[in-house]
């Protein structure tokens, strides 16, 4: 896909990886529709895209809410005249151990609400936005691209029952959609980042960050631009579909 004047929707576009991918794609001539919950952050992302010489609009919406998502994608399609791409990027963490067992006290640790809230955003949100984008792409006769953000945690990770399950589910949806939507000329891929410097990972304990940095052959955390570069590659490479690109500095070799 040549990105010039293509309309790309990014959920969670108000900060972090979503913002970095938006600015990178704007530099290649794409027009951006950014979805998030935080208006101030969205306005800052739009300003950066305009500085890059492209155009963007923002939409306040919760990706877990079906009617919110339906209305937002209809509005985006009407505002821009169609949809060519989607990056399902909005995601949250609510880490915690599954059960507790200390000093003879055994019990449940991760609450159902803690589990469900992560599934709602990271999995149901991806389902709802992906479905809406696919309908608009097919209706508009666009050979679109959908990218879903997974994570290296998809293989299972201590304290991340909820997050790991959601990110493994994202890969299963990616492959299913690649098979189902290929006949409409729509490609679907996933990115599984390692630990990248954003607000999400700034919350990490410093000793944990240091340990992770030492474990990587490249000896540092990743930068948001390095993930943005991968998203651009998936959009542009017409032979890419149904696969997960791992960008983790060698952490999971
Ligand atoms: P971030 O927390 O900096 O940004 C996430 C954005 O999603 C925020 O702007 C937030 O407001 C938005 N969001 C959250 N819930 C939403 C909802 N219900 N509706 C709409 N928007 C919502 O996170 P990030 O580090 O930029 O990560 C982006 C994606 O990449 C996430 O899916 C994350 O799981 C994934 N990821 C990140 C890393 C990392 O190291 N940063 C690693 C692997 C995967």
What does this protein look like?
The protein has 253 residues and is an alpha/beta fold. It has one domain: Rossmann fold (3-Layer(aba) Sandwich), CATH 3.40.50.720. The chain has 8 helices and 9 strands. The protein has helices at 16-27, 39-51, 66-80, 112-139, 161-181, 199-202, 206-215, 224-236, and strands at 7-11, 31-36, 56-60, 85-88, 99-102, 105-108, 145-149, 187-193, 244-247. The strands form 2 sheets. Strands 3-2-1-4-7-8-9 form a 7-stranded parallel β-sheet, with helices on both faces. Strand 1 (7-11), helix 1 (16-27) and strand 2 (31-36) form a beta-alpha-beta unit. Helix 1 (16-27) crosses helix 8 and helix 3 (66-80) packs parallel to helix 4 (112-139). The two termini are 31 Å apart. 43% of the residues are buried. The model has no long low-confidence stretch (mean pLDDT 97). The site of nicotinamide-adenine-dinucleotide (NAD) has 30 residues, from helix 1, strand 2, helix 4 and helix 6.
Give a quick summary of the entry.
By secondary structure, the chain is α/β, with parallel strands linked by helices. It is 46% helix and 17% strand.
Biggest β-sheet, characterized? 7 strands, parallel
Domain module count:
1
Mind telling me which CATH architecture this is? 3-Layer(aba) Sandwich
CATH topology: Rossmann fold
Question: Helix/strand-derived class?
Answer: alpha/beta
Give the tally of β-strands. Answer: 9
CATH homologous superfamily title: NAD(P)-binding Rossmann-like Domain
The hetero molecules present are: nicotinamide-adenine-dinucleotide
The succession of helices and strands, N to C, reads EHEHEHEEEHEHEHHHE
Described by the principal axes of the CA atoms, the overall outline is: globular
Protein name: SDR family oxidoreductase
Pfam family, one: adh_short_C2
Domain Ketoreductase: 6-199
GO molecular function, one term: oxidoreductase activity
